[in-house]
Task: structure prediction
Amino acid sequence: MIVTIDGVAASGKSSVASGVARALHVPYLSSGLLYRAATWAALQHGLPLDTPEAEGPLLDLLHAQTQAGTPLDLRPLPEGNQVWQAGRDISEALHTAEVDAHVSAAAVLPGLREWVNAQLRALTPPFLAEGRDMGSTVFPHADHKFYLHASARVRAERRVKERAQDVDSVEAALKLRDERDVRQSAPAPDAIHIDTGSGTLPEIIAQVLAHLPAPSAT
Ligand SMILES: Nc1ncnc2c1ncn2[C@@H]1O[C@H](COP(=O)(O)OP(=O)(O)O)[C@@H](O)[C@H]1O
Ligand SMILES: Nc1ccn([C@H]2C[C@H](O)[C@@H](COP(=O)(O)OP(=O)(O)O)O2)c(=O)n1
Result:
C-alpha cells in the first residue's frame, strides 16, 4: 500500500505522516527533506541556485558525493525522518531560514526533481510519502491520497513555536514559498482535502486513519 500526504508549507505533512505511519506500522518518507538536503549541500559548496544553469553543478556535486561513498542518506525513522552524510546527522541544519529561502529555487530544477523521485520510487511499499507532488506525479497510482492545507496565519503561528522568529515574517516567508512552489503543488484530482487548522494534531491523524484500512494484526 502507498499513501501520499501532500500540502502547502507547514500544513502539518510530516507530523500527520509520522502519526499515521506509526499507527499503521509502516515507514513514511519526507521528500521535502531531500530537497532541503540538496539545497544545504549547494549552500555548503557555494553553488548558486537561482538560475537554470545551477542544475549541472548541483547534480555533479550530488553524484560526486555518491561516488565518494558519502551520499545524502534519507533515513525514514517513524518518529521523524533524518538525513545523514558522511557519518553525521545533518537533519537539524535542514530547517534553517537560509535553507527555507533557497529550497524553492532548487526544487524547480528538473534534474533535482528526478534525483529525488528516483530515490523514492526505488523503495518497496508499504509506505507513506509526504511532500507536494507525491500523489500527483511521483505515485499517481497510490492507494490513498491526502492534501493538507490551513491558513497562512495558522501555519505561521505553529512554525514560530519551532523556531525563534516573529510570526509576521514567518507568515510572509511561507506565502512566498507557497507561490514559488505552486507548479509542483497542484493537488492530485483524487486527493482527499483536509484543513489541519480545524482540529488538533491527534484529531487530524484520526481523520486520515478513518479513510484507511485498519493495520493488520501481525
Ligand atoms: N492540527 C494540526 N495538524 C497538523 N500539524 C499541527 C497541528 N497542530 C499543530 N501542528 C504543528 O504544526 C507544525 C508544522 O507541522 P509540520 O508537520 O512540520 O508541517 P510540514 O511537514 O507540512 O512542514 C508542527 O509543529 C506540528 O506539530
Ligand atoms: N515533493 C516535494 C517536496 C518538497 N518540495 C520543495 C518545496 C518546499 O519549499 C521544500 C521543502 O519542503 P518541506 O516539505 O520540507 O517543507 P515545508 O513543509 O514546506 O516547510 O521542498 C517540492 O518541491 N516537492
Observations:
- The mean pLDDT is 95.
- The radius of gyration is 17 Å.
